[in-house]
Amino acid sequence: MNDSPKTFSPQIIDLFKRYVIGNYTRYPVCLVRGEGSHVWDAEGNRYLDFFPGWGCDLLGHCPPRIVAAVRDQVGKLIHVPNTWYNEAQGLLAQALSECSGIQGQCFFCNSGTEAVEAAIKLARLNGKPGRYKIVTMINSFHGRTLGALSATGQPKYHQGLEPLLAGFSYVPFGDLEAAAKAVDGETCAILVEPIQGEGGINLPPDGYLQGLRELADKHKLLLIFDEVQSGMGRTGRWFAHQHWHVEPDAVTLAKALAGGVACGALIAKPQAAEKLKPGTHAATFGGNPLACRAALAVIETIEADGLLARAEQIGARFRDRFEALRPRCPWIHEIRVKGAMIGVELSVDGAPLVNQCLERRLLINCTHGTVLRLLPALTLTDSQLDEGCDILDGVLLSYKT
Ligand SMILES: Cc1ncc(COP(=O)(O)O)c(C=O)c1O
Prior knowledge:
Elements: H1 9-19, E1 31-35, E2 38-41, E3 46-49, H2 64-74, H3 87-100, E4 105-109, H4 112-127, E5 133-137, H5 146-151, H6 155-158, E6 168-171, H7 176-182, E7 187-192, H8 208-219, E8 222-226, E9 250-253, E10 264-268, H9 270-273, H10 289-304, H11 307-325, E11 332-338, E12 341-346, H12 351-359, E13 362-363, E14 365-367, E15 371-374, H13 382-397
Parallel strand pairs: 3-13, 5-6, 5-7, 7-8, 8-9
Antiparallel strand pairs: 1-2, 2-3, 4-10, 9-10, 11-12, 12-15, 14-15
Helix pairs in contact: 2-10, 3-10, 11-13
This protein binds pyridoxal-5'-phosphate (PLP).
Pyridoxal-5'-phosphate is lined by residues 111-113, 116, 141-143, 193, 197-198, 226, 228-229, 254.
């Protein structure tokens, strides 16, 4: 495919109708190019993107260091399986271990759901003999493969796919007492997103993550944080749990890890990780040099450009904008922000607002029916932020119930 597409959106959409399985709801737009916080469609229209890559494009579209690293690597070695060593995987594991602060060891895969599958196996292998149950949270989201889906505490995603993997009990996020009650002699782990993402950008109440740590220690459970959405600097720390100074036994990562290139990881403390021996788990593409070079470039960019601090600034500016709007906009129920992880809970359905923003060439997301979710790039400029917020203000103020 060359730079100037010869087909336009309707023709491309027709190809999808005929040849692509219809398991996604798609907007009638075909994107062809991206740069920073902008994308262009096949007709040449430009959109401002406050939700780049569903959280994967943490540094915006086509960030220069990642493009350069991938270009360099692609001509040297694209993929080698894990029967061989490759330098990029080793360096990435070292960098993640250091960022995570748990001196962990890494297993690499290609997506969030795979990282969670690895975490479920880690938990069960560490629970042997006899312990296999995992406590997870209501409104959590851990992925679509059957293990991660079983861990996900939302019945709407389970429908039609039962029987699920056995052993998960779901308790309200933030409720320590309920978590304690769910633990029994067969429990081996607690799996929790430090900040629920898909569930509506739900922040943990004070003391909650620490309380889960104590519960896990008391019953010798693994405490696993799913940071697929909140990790890699998104919230202003390398990992969201670092805001609350609680150490997990393992962390799952994906989305932003390689800046839009498919890459997932499980980081686990060595004493837990040692149970994942040859033959227990694998991923053919996991840890390939291309993805690992991209991920190393993400870490280098965040460090070189001071983007952890920028995440905090972005969050503060968005918060100010929404707080300023709130008195004039009765549908804003709650504003929840941690760095560049932003949720605005409305008292009305959010889907029509997403469509109205799209008409005005602003890309946002709505999750859980009523929560506008923004996961902007850490390279978003103040003027882009204000431009998008002006559009959002207009859309929110003109909302008709
Ligand atoms: C916290 C969390 N875990 C796991 C996943 C699944 O990731 P993937 O879609 O890459 O499989 C997601 C996806 O949104 C997520 O937000």
